[in-house]
Amino acid sequence: MDDKILSASPVMVPVNQIYQNQRIGNSLKSISNHTTDKDDPKLAAACAEMESLFLTHLLKEMRATVEKSGFIGGGQAEEIFTSLLDIELSKKMSAAGGIGLSDILLEQLGAKSPRNNNPASE
């Protein structure tokens, strides 16, 4: 089953991705009237969730490139397990610092001053 998100066919989207997308969308709606406060906890949480979602998709695509050996054929249960494993791994990776995407998003959305324009940060 192809897990690509198709606008014409919502049936192809896995349930956990729909839930995650709705949760992140709701988080972003709640901060739509964002302030210029760079320490806004809702904005930081939404940025961390966005990084986690990106990492989930990255892990899923990386896993798709590995050939299955056929040694253990888990079928649909294995697919569900690996999908949930990727989600949890991405949450842990994002919480541990991730790849820096949440910092970039927080800088852009929170109207932080860029690092190179702030001589005190150097």
Which terms summarize this structure?
122 residues, mainly alpha, single chain, disordered N terminus
Can you tell me about this structure?
The protein is an all-alpha fold and 122 residues long. It has a domain at 13-26 and 40-63 and 75-109. The protein has helices at residues 15-30, 41-64, 75-95, 101-109. Helix 1 (15-30) runs antiparallel to helix 2 and helix 2 (41-64) packs across helix 3. It is elongated and about 50 Å long. The protein starts with 14 loop residues before the first helix and ends in a 13-residue tail after the last helix. Mean pLDDT is 75; it is low at 1-11.
Distance between the termini: 50 Å
Structural class: mainly alpha
User: What integer is the average pLDDT?
Assistant: 75
Order of SSEs, N→C?
A: HHHH
Report the helical percentage: 55-70%
Radius of gyration: 18 Å
Portion in strands: under 5%
Largest sheet: none
Number of helices, where a helix is a run of at least 4 consecutive DSSP H or I residues: 4
Tell me the number of strands.
0
Which parts are unreliable, with pLDDT below 50 for 5 consecutive residues or more?
1-11
Given the C-alpha coordinates, what overall shape results?
elongated
